[in-house]
Amino acid sequence: VVILLLFCRLVLFGYSLWFTVCCNSVTKIESYAGYSVSFSCLYQPQYQNNLKYICRGTRPSMCLQQALITSYNKKNGRFRLNDENMSTKFTTKISSLTQSDSGRYLCGIQRNSDLHLFYAFELKVKDRCCDTVTNIESYEGYSESINCPHENQYQNSLKYICRGNQPSTCLQDALITSNNRENGRFRLNDVKMSRIFTVTISSLTQSDSGHYLCGVQTNSDHDVFSAVELRVKGESSAKCLSENHKKEVCIFTAFCFSDSALYVPFTVPLVLLLLIGILVVVVYKWKHYKVKGIFYIHTHAESHPLKCACEKSITVFSAVCFQKMKPLWTQMHPRQKV
After folding, report:
1. Is residue 188 in some structural domain?
2. pTM of the model
3. Minimal CB count within 10 Å: which of 33, 302, 332, 335?
4. One domain for residues 62 and 111
């Protein structure tokens, strides 16, 4: 009898250890604050009419009595339970997520034995998006394009962009969408075959600096997002050095050529001489003042326009033009001003 009692206690102890924490595998789910999330729990056909429920935590022994919702009571605040008997699964939906909803959940299925069937989920609710952020820099008065990649399955889905990093309110606060592709300074171009949509912001100001979210609408509980941080620098960030500091020299020679072949014999030798002269002066000044930097000489206005930061962009006209000597830029603008 004593041996039998010890054996029973050992079995019960092992049973209680197994029953304390669940489960061997955990399904991880991520969503954002303000969104909804759903997770489904499969069961075998013989359990179609059995009680289903969900609870928080990892203790199966306490799950039913602490159930957030059951198949007998399918609505409870932000929780909804839908038992799809034909597909042998039940789905629990939590709406208006908050970060406090993060944590472990157990799906329970009552069986005829004392041992119920469980599935474990771990929910992570983020208040901001995203883990990876693309950084872009530009300048006041310029235009900037934001490229938003997406998967091939979303070619025909609604695309949009908003300011900030709150996915739950992004669509309703959208600056522009693929259904309305022009809005003030914003333009949206959806190149479906390339799986990228581009948003262009013109006439940038420093107030345009900040976070942006590219959104793609999906059929699930939450859309797909990518994050961008735009930094717009003012004109003062590229001002020239004063006379009291190191002096640098910037020599501009703007060239334009007529389509007529009559100007070729005259302009080509002149241009070559001017380029040689500019190169000599630049090398001399660089050595004389020991200026750190890179000198760019271009005769094509559309590639890398040569400019001083305190002057307007150089434009090439249909003549051989000369500019007076100007102070050298301390920082080149990366894009041509519009």
Report:
1. yes
2. 0.54
3. 302
4. yes
Cβ atoms of residues 145 and 156 within 8 Å? no
How many angstroms separate the CA atoms of 31 and 330, rounded? 45
Number of domains in the chain: 3
CA angle 333, 335, 338 (to 5 degrees): 110
Residue type, 338: V
**Same domain flag for 213 and 252:** no
> Can you tell me the distance from the alpha carbon of 153 to that of 168, in angstroms, rounded to the nearest whole number?
22
Nearest CA to 333 out of 317, 299, 310, 300 is that of 310
174, 244: one domain: no
**Is the residue at 4 inside a domain?**
no
Contact 97, 34 (CB under 8 A): yes
The contacts of residue 127 (CB under 8 Å, 6+ apart) are 32, 33, 99, 166
Which amino acid is located at 206 in the chain?
Answer: Q
N- to C-terminal Cα separation, the chain: 95
- Do 120 and 142 share a domain, yes or no? no
Question: Which of the 8 DSSP states describes residue 331?
Answer: S
**CATH code assigned at 206:** 2.60.40.10
Residue 6 resides in a domain? no
Question: Both tokens of residue 87?
Answer: 């597909």
| Strand (E) or helix (H) holding 16 | helix 2-20
Cβ neighbour number for residue 199 with a 10 Å cutoff: 23
| Domain extent at residue 297 | 238-327
The verdict on 227 and 246 lying in the same domain is no
Domain membership flag for residue 43: yes
